[in-house]
Design brief:
two-stranded antiparallel sheet; single chain; 26% helix; alpha/beta; 10 helices; 12% strand
Amino acid sequence: MSSLQEQGLPEYDAVKDGLRKGDPHHSAWGLYGENDELGTLNRLTNGRVVEAARSEIVAGTRISLNLPLSLQTPSQKSFFNRALFHQDLIHKAPRIVNDDIWTFNTQISSQWDGLRHFAYQKEQKFYNGVTLSDIHGEGFIEGDTTRDARTSVNGIQAIAKQGIIGRCILIDYHTWRLSLPNPPPYDPFTTTAIPLSTLLSVLESQKTTIKFGDILLIRTGYGAAYNLKSEVELSALKSINPPYLGGVQQSEEMLRWIWENFSAVGGDQPSFECWR
């Protein structure tokens, strides 16, 4: 019996063409309820969180995974042409008091993609069939910006209620690649794909085991490559829209592997998968 069957979840082939008739391919809408806003994060059950804390925490060291919000500000450009981070520091004279006003696109630095971010383009629907009008509200006109939207469906706040907490594994592709006698080339600023077979080789080298419901993080080396670029070079790369970006391979076997094992995935690059 597979891990999915043990959890009472459908196999990958059952969702490949859409779990429900009429739904988009590779969707499992309705699996966790018609009004669910968490998706595979439902796999992070209380039992799995307790087990992870009991068996995995040893040193208690806390590590931030966030890039600086201002990382892209110096070049005055950003990938995908998103609004940069800016800080207004206000002295509240005559008192010795400071206030801050921060403005930025929430995807300008490290972030989790919410389920209202990128829809099925042909069907024009987000997770569980949510539409643009459901998100922007009554009277929405395509192409407009909705300020202070009053709807929260599929919003990131649904995730924030409990946070994303569980057992996480790191695939350090960057360190593994550089440890090889003849490291294969990898340029994160090109559409270079990392295949599943390579990720499995890294896991074997690390002696890392996967448990169902794990959170997967992949270190491709994007940060190291970014830090070696001058602001002039970065500005030129950011002028290409959409940009060329490396990441995991876009393949059926990659999707199957993710569905069969993980609750969430993330990486050190602007897009998890190779992109153009």
